[in-house]
Amino acid sequence: MSKVARLASRGAKGAKAVQQKKVKPNNVIKTYINAGQASPGPPLGPVLGQKGIAIGQFCKDFNERTKSIKEGIPIPTKITVNSDRTYTIKMNKPPVSYYLKAAAGISRGANSPGKEVVGKVTLKHVYEIAKIKSEDENLQDETMHYICRAVIGTARSIGIQVVEELDANEYRQFLLDLEQRKEQEKLEKEAMSLLKK
Questions:
Q1: Rounded distance, CA 111 to CA 12, Å?
Q2: Short-list 111, 191, 110, CA closest to 155
Q3: Which of 10, 11, 25, 60 gives a 20 to 30 Å CA spacing to 37?
Q4: How far apart are CA 29 and CA 79, in angstroms?
């Protein structure tokens, strides 16, 4: 390669670097964003910035579209970035685990699912959750039986037992006993860590 050809190729590379990056058409970002809480900070801001989306405008649009939903609920969101740096937002219903934890009255799933039960829901809860989730785009072609089985599987995976009927007073006592057991385990762990020192 001659000296002139090398200089010409360097110049072409430099010119390419100066040009703005082209956004590949149909870039898709799938993420969970809390309703009404989209902000330009991490983790959302950097991901959108890499795709060339105006972060402030996106946050404003998303928060406006989710203002009717209780703030803080995780919303599965699919953002499609077009080649002209515009975007479309598709939102689904919150995840099954959110509904199950709300129905069971707990804030977290089990640390070791399958070994411990942290909550209980009835078959009626399962059916109602399945009915809500059947409206999601990816589940519209599925049978209600299939969706109910998926909800039961998710319940097991986070330590929630599915029962036919549930007495409110019995369940309240179950949750109190569970809280006492967790507190006892926490005290035992602290005592063990003090003994090791």
A1: 57
A2: 110
A3: 25
A4: 5
177 vs 195: CA distance, rounded Å: 27
State both tokens at 119: 């909550």
End-to-end Cα, the chain, rounded Å: 70
User: Can you read off the two tokens belonging to residue 44?
Assistant: 């959302």
Going residue by residue through the chain, which has 197 residues, state the pLDDT in tens, using 9 for 90 and above.
555 455 445 554 444 443 444 545 458 899 999 999 999 988 888 988 888 888 999 999 999 999 999 999 999 999 998 888 889 999 999 999 999 999 999 999 998 888 889 999 999 999 999 999 999 988 989 999 999 999 999 999 999 999 999 888 888 898 888 889 889 888 888 888 888 77
